[in-house]
Amino acid sequence: MPAFAHLHCHTQYSLLDGASDISKMMDKALSDGQKGVALTDHGNMFRAFQFVHEANKRGLKPVVGQVGLVRAF
């Protein structure tokens, strides 16, 4: 089976949309056999450095992103 990684993952820093703890998210990705994991919180990157550090500790490829909203004028 080809490698797989979820590319739309929110943590507790995506208010009202995510509740995942970074360490638990990494452990779950490892137990599922994923090679990488993404962080795509809404409107912030407060835990990007922690996310990359935790992924590197576990041998996972970190993919850092952000969900941004664009308002039409």
Detailed description of the structure:
- The protein is an alpha+beta fold and 73 residues long.
- It has one domain (1-73).
- Helices cover 29% and strands 19% of the residues.
- The chain has helices spanning 22-31, 48-58, and strands at residues 36-42, 61-67.
- Strands 1-2 form a two-stranded parallel sheet.
- The protein is globular and about 45 Å long.
**Mean pLDDT across all residues, rounded?**
89
Whole-angstrom Rg: 13 Å
Main sheet record? 2 strands, parallel
Question: How many structural domains can be distinguished in the coordinates?
Answer: 1
Q: Helix- and strand-based class?
A: alpha+beta
Q: What is the H/E string?
A: HEHE
- How many β strands by DSSP? 2
Beginning-to-end CA distance, first to last residue: 45 Å
Low-confidence parts: none
In the sheet with the most strands, the strands line up as 1-2
Fraction of residues in helix: 25-40%
How many DSSP helices? 2
Quickly list its features.
73 residues; alpha+beta; two-stranded parallel ribbon; 2 helices; 2 strands; globular
Summarize the structure.
The chain is an alpha+beta fold and 73 residues long. The protein is built from two helices and two strands.
Fold blueprint:
Elements: H1 22-31, E1 36-42, H2 48-58, E2 61-67
Parallel strand pairs: 1-2
